[in-house]
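Quick entry, no commentary yet.
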Amino acid sequence: MQWEEEMCIVSGNNRAVDGKPPKTVVELWCRTRSGHSVTLLVDGLRPYLVVAEPGSPRPASESAAGLDYLRGMDEVVEITSIGDKWTHLGEKPHWKIEVRQPYEIRRLRKRIQDAWVVTSADILFVQRLLLDCDLGPHILARGEVLWAGERAPLEARDEQTSDRAIAAGRIADVGGVGIYPTDMVVSCTLDNLAKTEPFRTPFVTFSFDLETSIQSNRILCAAAVIDRGGERSEHTFRGEEGDIMEGLTSLVRLEDPDIITGYNIDNFDLPRMEERTDVLAGRSKMEAAALYGWGRVPMLQSENKRLFPTRQQNRVWRIPGRIPLDAWWQVHTSTLRPQRETLSYVSKLLWPEDEDKHKLDIDASQMDREWAERPDEVLEYCVRDTVLPLDILGRLQSVARKEALASVSMTTVETASAGTTSQWIDSLVIRLADRSNVAVPTTNSGPRRRDQIAGGYVHEVDAGISPWVVVLDFKSMYPSIMIANNICPTTLVRDDSTDDSYNVSPTTHTSYRSKDERIGLVPHLLEQLMQSRDKHKAALTAARDAGDEAEAFLQDQMQYAVKILMNSFYGVFASSFYRFTHPDIGASITEWARHNIRDIIAQVESDGHKVVYSDTDSIFVRAPVDKQAPINRPDEGEEGLDEWERAKRETLQFGER
C-alpha cells in the first residue's frame, strides 16, 4: 500500500544489511504534519569517500595504476570519476570510492591516506543522505506501508499492514528489524523524498520525574505527563521499584514520544534510571530492556545496544529515535538567567502569581520520612514536577526553536538540539561545497590548542555617570566583515603573491581574493542567510498585520534561528579543529573588526563628541545636549518636562546622524 505525507525528521540512524550485494538502510524517525509517528526505511544510498592524488594537479590519466590498486581492495564496490574539484593546491581530478558499509570507510581511509588525499570521509551516513538529496528536516515522503498500528491513519491499515507477523517479515525484507514502536513503518527510496516548506510539527513530549530514597537510592515513586499536541495525560507509579520502572518504560513505548524532558534529568533522573537498572537486572539485557528500554527500536535481543539511553560527551544524552531535552539546561542557556536555577525558583520567577505552577511543600532532603508519613502528597509533588518542565519548555519556546534551527541549518531536529555549531554549519557548507566542486576535507584531528586570537576592541571607560548616551550597535558585525572582505578558506591567499584586487587585513596583511575572481563559500552562505532573515522578518510583519498568529510564530522562530546560525560562523571558523578553517581566518576577522571600530571612534571624536565606551561591535557616545537637562523623565505637569523631551529628541536625532 502506497502512502504519502509531509513529515519532520526527528532523528536518524543507519543499519548495515549483509547480502549480495550488501546495502545500508537509513532509519529516519519522523512525526507527520497530521501527528503520526513514522519509521521511514530509506534504501538507495551507498557509503563512499572521495580521493585525489597528493601534490600539485596532474592529468587524470596518470592515476590509472593507483586506481587499479584501489579496485582490488575488498571494501571497494565501485570507483567513479567525478571530475575536477578545487583544493588549496589548485583544481585536481577526484574519484568517488563506494564501499560496502559505512563502518568500512574509516578503515579504508587509514589504509590509503599515505598514497591518496582522502576527502568527504567523516560524514555521518544519515547526514550524507540529507546532503546528497539536499533535504532538511521537513520532507514529503512517499513509500510502501509495511506496518500500521492502532494510531495510524485508517487508509494505511489493511490485513497485511496490521498483522504483526506479516509486517515483521516485510520489514526484514527491506533491511529493517522487527516492529518499531511507531505508528507506522514505511519503506521508500531516495527518489521518494522531497524537500517541503517548514511547518510547526505536533511533536509528542514525555515529561517524567522520580522521587528516590536518600538512604538507599531506591526509586520510591514516579510520575509522567504525555503532551500530545497540547492535550496532556498524567500518569503515576508506586509500589515495587521494578514495577515503577517497567511502568515508565511501557508508557514510553506505548505513547511513542519524540521528546523526553524533565527538570535536571541529565544529571539525576536518567543516571538514576541507569543505575537502578544495573542493580535490578544485573547482566540480563532483556530484563534491563523491560526496565529502561526507551530507544525507538524493537524490543529484541539484537537491538540491545540501541535500546538504552546513553550519555555522550558534553553532558548530552542520546536515546535512539528520541530527543532528551532537559528543561533545566534550557533555562540555564536561555536569556532568562535566573539568580538560582532550582525548579522552585524558576517557576516562581516565570509565574509569580500562579500558585498552580509553584512547587508543593515537600522537603526533598528528607524524602524517606516524607514518603513514609505522607505518600499521597509526595506523589502529587512528583506530578507537579513533571508538569512544570513542559510549561517551561513552552514558555521558552525551546522545542519550536530547535525545529526552526533544524530547518535553517537543514539537519535533523536531534542535531539542532544536541549537536554542535560546527555540525549545523557543516550541513550548509558541505552541500554548497559539493555543488561548487570544492573538495571537503576531514575534520582536523591535531592539537586543539593554539595561540589565542586577539578579540574585539574594548575602549577604556572612565568612572562616573554619563547622561544622554547614544548606543550604536553594528548589525551582524562579524558576518558583515566576512561578506565584505570575501573571507573564506577558498579565497585565502596562501602564497606570497600580491594583487591590487586582494582584500588585505589591516595588521597581519592576510589576503583574500576578490569576489570578481572567486566568491567564497562562507560569504555566499552568509549573504543567503541575511536575505533569508530579512524575508522571514517581512513575513512575520505581514502575518501579524493579518492577525495570523500561527504563521507569525513560525516566522519569528525562523528569523531567530537564522540569527543564531549566522552568529555561529565566526566561532566555528576561528576554531582550530573545523574542517574548512585556517589559523589566519579568525585573526583577520577580529583585525578588521578592531580597525572598523577604531576608525569610527576616531571620526566621532574628531567631530568633538566623547566616546564613553566601546566593546567589540558597539559604541557608546555622549550626545551633545544641554548638560542641565534632567536625566529622569519628570511627571506630566512637573517642571523640566519640556527640557527632558527636547533632550530626548536631540539625542535620537544625533544618533541617527
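second:
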Amino acid sequence: ITVNSTQISNLPLNGRNVFDLMTMSTGAVSVKGTDFEQGHGTVVNGLREDFGGYLINGLSNKGLSGAVVNTPIQDTVEEFQQLQLNMSAQYGSAAGNVVNLVTKPGTNAWHGGAWEYIRNNALDANDFFLNQKGVPRAPLHFNQFGGSVGGPIIKDKLFFFLALQGDRYKTIGIPQTLLQESQVWRDAVIKADENSLGITTDAGLDSPSAYLYDKFKPANPGTPSGVTADTYFGLTKNTPANYSAALCLDVTPGVGLGLGGGPPNGFGGMTKLQHQKLIQIFGVTAQDVLDMAAAGCNNIPGLTNGTLNRSASVSENSVGTFPTQTDALGNLFNGNEASIRLDYNWNTNNRTYISFNYLRATDTQGPCATSSCTRGFSNPTRNLFPQGALSWVHTFSPTVLNELRVGYTQNNTSVKTSQSGVPSVGFTDGTAFFGSYNGYPQVFKENIYSYSDMVSISHGNHNMKVGIDFRRNIENSEFNIARPSYYFYDQVYFAADAPYEQVAGVDPEICQWPCPVSSYNPN
C-alpha cells in the first residue's frame, strides 16, 4: 500500500506515529500489549513481528533486535510505503513486509504549519466500573506540539524543510494489588534496631531492614490483612504452639535453629544472631517461657521486652501506584524531536539531499515492577535515536540513472537507578519489593551504517535494477549484574536478615554468613 501526505495528515493516529499505518494493509494484525517481540507491535502475513523491515528514504531504520529505531515527525513524511511478499530483490533483508518512509523536501513555494494535540483526563469520562466504586479517574496528561516550515534558499537550486516537535507525557503505571508491611510492624522493626545500637557491631543486631523500612515506605495506605504474630505462628499438628516455642534455643549457638519447614512453621537454618534480631522485635514473655519449657527447650532465654504488639496486624493489603512517562503501548512518551532536510539541484544531471532526524525520549521513572516503584525505586531512562542520510542521484542518459545512498542510525538507550546502593530485595509471599533490577544501570548503544548504490536501466519495454546494499551494525553496550538480589520468604525473615537465596552480584553483607548463594534467578 501507499499512503500520501494528505491521507497521513487526516487519518487518526495515536501519538501521530506513522508506523501505525501498517495495520491498514491486508494480512496485518496489531499485537501491541500481547506480543513482546521487538518490532512495531504488528504481525504481517503471519510472520514474526521482528521479521519486518524498516527504512527511511531507502536506508535502514532497524536495529539488531528487529525494532524500529527512529520514528519521524508525522508532518515530515511525504509518503508511507508498505511492501509485502512479492517485493523486489532490493528489499531482500526482510520477510513479511518492508515499510519505507519518504520524507518531505522543500520546494519553490513556502509552506509550513503549527500544531498542538492535547489529551487530558480533565476532558475524559471516568471508567464505568471505577466510577461505580467511587475511584477517581487515572491522571493522563499528553501534549504534543510543534511546527514545520519549508521553502527555497536559492530558487530552483537549494531548498530546505525543517520541523520541530515536543512531547510531554505524564500518567500513572497500571495499578497492582500487593501486600505490604503494616505501620505497626515497620515501627517495631525500626524500634528494635534502635534498641540494639548499644551492642557492639560484631553482635550483628544492626538491621538493614530497619533502614529500608524507614527510608522507603509504600506509596499508599492499606487495610489490615489480619495476619498477626499469633496467627503467623499458629497452632498446627506438627509445630510449636507459638512464637517462643518456635524459636527454642536448643541448638549450638551460631549454627542454626534447625526447625525447618519454612514459614510460618519454623526457622530452619537461622543463625543465633538472626534469631536475636527477632527476639528484639517479638520479645519473650513469662508465658513464652512456660511454653518453651513445655516444648522441651534446653536453653530458655530470659524475659525480654519486645517492640511489637503481637495482636496487631503485621501486614496490609494495598494497591501499588507510581508516576510514569512511558505508555504501555509505546506511542506516547516524553521527549523532543527535530528534522531537517536540504535538497540541492546541481544541474539537470545531478541532484542530492542530506537529511537528519533527531529523537530524544526521557522517563524520570523508567521500567520497573509496581511493587518496587511504589516504594520510590525509580529507574530513569534516556533514549537517543538520531538518523541521518545522504543521497546523490546522477543521470548518465535518459535510460541510465544511478543513486548512491549513505546512512547512519544510532540506537542508544540508557537505564539508571535512583538508589543504586540498595540491592534488589524480593519476597515469596508477594510483599512489595525493595530496590531495582540488579542489571541496572545499563547502557545499550548500537551504531547502524548503511551503504547502497543502485543503477536503474530502461531499455524499450524492459526495466532493470542492479546494485548493492551493505549494512553494518556495531554494538557497544554495558550490561553487568553489579548488585546482588536477595529473596526472603516474608517480612519476618527480612527483619531477621535471613534470605533463603542470593543471586549474583557482590555481597554487601546484608546477611550473616553462611548466606545461601544461587545462580538461579526466580524472576
